[in-house]
Structure formats: C-alpha cells, structure tokens
Design a protein that fits this description.
mainly alpha; 4 helices; elongated
Amino acid sequence: MVWLLRLMHGFLLAAGLALLGLPLAAQAEVPLPQVPEAQKRVSEAQGCVEPVEVMRKKHYEFLMHQRDETLRRGIRTRKYSLEECINCHVPPPESGKLVRIDSKEHFCSSCHSYAAVRVDCFQCHRDTPLPGKSSGAGHRSTLLGAAPPAMGSTTLASEGDVR
C-alpha cells in the first residue's frame, strides 16, 4: 500500500512540474512582431531621425513633445512630426498597397498591437501618407489630411461686433 502512495505521489509531482513548465514553453513560442521596413532613410549613416533603439524606447516622448510645441506654442518642425513618421514608414497610396492602422502591416500597429497599447493618434491624423508627398516635401498639417489655414485668412471680429 505504501508503494502505491509513493507511486501516486511521484506521478502527481511529475505532473505538477510539467504544468509549471507549460507557461514558460508557451512564452518561448510567442513570435515577435513583424515590423515593416521604412520606405526611406534620413541618411546613409542613420535610417531614422534617432537611432533605432532610442526610437523604440522614446518615440512617444518625441511625438508628445512635438504635439505640445505645435499646439501650445505654434512651433512646427518636421524632425519629430507624425506626418514625417507616416511618410517614411507607411507605403504611399501610389504603391497600390493600402495599409491602414487597423492592419498588422501598418508600422505603428505592428508593435502597438503586440504590446497591447492603444494608438489614438489616428482619430484625427492620417494613417497613410498624403498622395504624391515624400518625406522631403514641405510640411503640411496632418489633421484629416487638410492643409492649415493661411496666416492672413483668419478675420477677427471688430470691437463693436457681437457674435
């Protein structure tokens, strides 16, 4: 009878150890995201505006800082603009391949879906490059794909005008 208890104890111990190892085995088989290659390079020495490891860790900080500078201070630069990221990393419409943010082939979505991070930039901004625009083109607003109003087009109400 004792030998039967010892045998059952051994089986239970082996089964428990096997079950403990399953999460590790399952984790080892999870593939990393397939990140699409950039369409352009900033220079021959450097592919992106910052080294790849810096962009992987801090891209959101650059984008948030750019957003704050643009919205709060009116300063528009191209180095960290979302439009430049999209123009470089997402295939242009002329390529015949329409890649939107809900596709795993979209540059942003490829890692953000893997990391379970919600991307809300594209509720207002384009998720595809502007047709006919390359990374070297002049900066345009990416809000819904429209150009910003001309500086002199805004009219102010006169003092006596009540609206």
